[in-house]
Amino acid sequence: MISRRMFMQGACGYVIGVMSVGGYSCLLEPRWLEIKNVFINIHGLPKQFEGMTIAQLSDIHHCKYVSREFIKKCVRKVNALSPDIIALTGDYVYGSKEFISSVAGELVELKAKEGVFAVLGNHDNKDVTVDTLAKKGIRVLINEHIPLYRKKDYLFIAGVDDLWAGKLNLETTLKGVDDKPKILLCHNPDAIEMIKCTGVDFVMAGHTHGGQVSLPLYGPPVVYSKFGVRYASGLFHEEKTIMYVNKGIGVSNFPVRFFARPEITLFTLQNSAQII
């Protein structure tokens, strides 16, 4: 027989456990930034670009749940990495385009030796976002590429429109490129099924938030992707294309994260032919 006292103790323990998990997922983890260092091996990477670093910041989702102060903290963290390039992979606001002005006011403080580049996400108003970010000196790439030079050598930085909310066009994006390495910013990782056949070497994506909630021994119950959990987060190899899916720093739908910490990623490029 279970006594009333034992039952009450068990019930209290359960309630405390639920409250602890709730407090952690609502108050702690959504602000517990993780800095990930990832090496990307690119065949044929010019010697001038060996060791080049790219910091990726994704899915900021500035809204009442993701404060300007937290974005300021993230910007400071990125700048402390001293990256050569900063890549912003979409979804700057959530719920209202009115937040774009304040998030852009923080992103303007990003410092990169060779430029800050951005693409749009499915929550971004195209006209307002492009205009606001461009005024802050951030280059928004929509189905286009630019050559990035170091002395006489170069590689390509490209960006596509959003797969869901825009008009993604890889043919236009890559028109005129040659066999030099191609690095692509793309908000939604589902586009990899089209990208992997185009000769793109490295893709930086976001969108999934790593599921935002990831259960131990199970993984994310929900990922907003037609491929389910396949591209939830991390490093993937598809054909000859490498893709990294960043978990982002913001939240959507529910202001929680659980075993899916907000993430800033620092990539270091290296020539795969020189790796023993």
Query: How many domains in all?
Result: 2
User: What's the overall average pLDDT, rounded?
Assistant: 92
**What can be said about the biggest beta sheet?**
6 strands, mixed
CATH class group of the largest domain: Alpha Beta
Q: Which regions are unreliable across 5 or more consecutive residues at pLDDT < 50? A: 6-20
Give the N-to-C terminal Cα separation. 66 Å
- Total strand segments: 12
Order of helices and strands: HEEHEHEHEEEHEHEEEE
Our estimate of the beta-strand percent is 15-25%
Helical residue percent?
A: 10-25%
CATH architecture of the largest domain: 4-Layer Sandwich
What's the arrangement of strands in the largest beta sheet?
A: 1-12-2-3-4-5
The whole-angstrom Rg is: 20 Å
Structural class: alpha/beta
Shape: globular
CATH superfamily label of the largest domain: Metallo-dependent phosphatases
Give a structural overview.
This protein is an alpha/beta fold and 276 residues long. α2 (68-80) runs parallel beside α3 (100-107) and α3 (100-107) packs parallel to α4. The longest helix is centred in the first third of the chain and has 25 residues, at 4-28. It contains 6 helices and 12 strands.
